[in-house]
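Here is one chain, start to finish.
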Amino acid sequence: MSVEIGHFALVLALALSLVQSVLPPVGARLRDERLMATGSASSVAGFLLLALSFAALTHAYVVSDFSVVNVVENSHSLKPLLYKITGVWGNHEGSMLLWVLILSLFGSTVALFGRDLPPTLKANVLGVQAWIQTAFLLFILLTSNPFLRSVPAPPEGNDLNPILQDIGLAIHPPLLYLGYVGFSISFSFAVAALIDGRIDAAWARWVRPWTLLAWAFLTAGIAMGSYWAYYELGWGGWWFWDPVENASFMPWLSGTALLHSALVMEKRSALKIWTVLLAILTFSLSLLGTFLVRSGVLTSVHAFAVDPERGVFILGILCVFIGGSLSLFAWRAQALEAGSIFAPISREGALVFNNLFLSTAAATVLVGTLYPLALEVVTGTKISVGAPFFNLTFGPLMVPLLLAVPFGPFLAWKRGDLLAAAQRLYVAVGMAMAAMLAVLAVTQGLRILAALGFGLAVWVIAGSLVDLASRAGLGRVPLGTAWSRFRGLPRSAFGTALAHAGLGATMLGVVAVNSFETETVTTMVPGASVVADGITVRFEGMTPREGPNYREDVGRFTLIRPNGEVTALETARRFYPVRQMPTTEAGIHTRFFSQVYIALGDSAANGGATVVRIWTKPLITLIWLGAVLMALGGFASLSDRRLRVGAPARSRRPPAPVPAE
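Its structure:
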């Protein structure tokens, strides 16, 4: 019965979405407050219905209701409860339901907390959100219904893909969707403003918190996905430039540019046209990612679906929303004011510089991702564009961008002094030079590129710290005064410093791993030892073990460091009988920011020897810790009262006394 309730709630949500897509925009056109007010009520009601539908599907998974096709194909009665729940979105149909649920969550949040928005703008925003929601609800009900019945019901399910039976599935997709789908609000604000014909600094102030929220979630989601693939696939890598990885990275790059562009528009009423275009392109890239994952045009461990009919449906959605919004932009852009003028050397100029390189980097990743697909369609030739292309094109674009990052906060608006900004960054310059000299000394001058990379990463980190110290007046005022100023800095200042420092930390981890990682592949028997980067790795033997829905052979290892420190480490090969699939469970030992990573290969024919892959990865955890810092920086900035629309500071002045008559 709960399955029918979930299906009926989904249909009702579509009906409400259709109402929301028509009445509020018509009300905005006619300046009818009653029609515009229907947007908020229908948005909240639609979210509640979708939440009910999602809860019904979750209940079917928890109780192993194998009368539902989706549960049969993606669950098993022996599967642990956590993976039964995460299995709800570990498949195409369930993940699309989660996608639309999050879309409605953002729309209902605007409805509830957008009280200070102009009524016509709010009505148009909710209307645009409803257009997107209607399209994807139709997609779910017509091609991807998660509530289809299986008659007769089988006694057991087919289990979930073993790679997805991991805690990462509980975290990665929801975070990623909160980022992907969150950019729909920026898109809706852009389209609504183009319809309304009003784009100004107030518009940028309304849209920036939503962009910041989506960007922070997307940052965390990409980082979690990278770490999940790193430890779950047993391949030892943290980024493969997989097309579906790129599909999440492209909106992150354009979303970062959008954040900085919206800041210029809010502070200086400049870059209006560019900001609106970025808002449209960022969500368009999110839609493109949805198409790549679910169309069947890509073969990837990330891909959910391979049904061409679904791909054609999503392609139609892409054409309507991307083509329609860009056409509206082309029609309205000429009527938009250009905004204020600023000198090239200024904070606005630094942010424009940032935008140019981020947008070019996103375009580079887009070309590398789509070119093989386009070539196959046109000529039938299959090629792959891998890490060498992206490293040679994307990497150089990041160097000038990272060099410029610390300068931005030290440049004045409208017209800045580059020399004065450089003089205030002398401490950061000194720290970067010291890092480069240290690397050159350790490597005896043989790793020049590594030294430059370390110096650039330290430059970004130190620049963010110098920014906070300069704002507090450290070195110019007494220490107590500086501490008082530091504590009184706005949260957005701490958020910016955290995000920039996180970027530097991630780069530090990337450079360290790419420059100093070691890999040892060998065949070992119990009792054998091998030395990897100064660490003695001894193979103690294999032990069979039974799990709830799998069997595994556990390899036991002992790590002996040069200082005599001894650590036990386990890694395993698992086999899932229902799916008839093996997986590798890597053994990872973390010490400070570095890791030793061990994965088992196949056993030799006699059963005694085992192929073992051993990696030593210096400072690799900084890659993900840096991303966490970036996300925390976004949330810290979001907590700044000045960035929260509808929450102006209350006056502390007592009310004026009423004169006696």
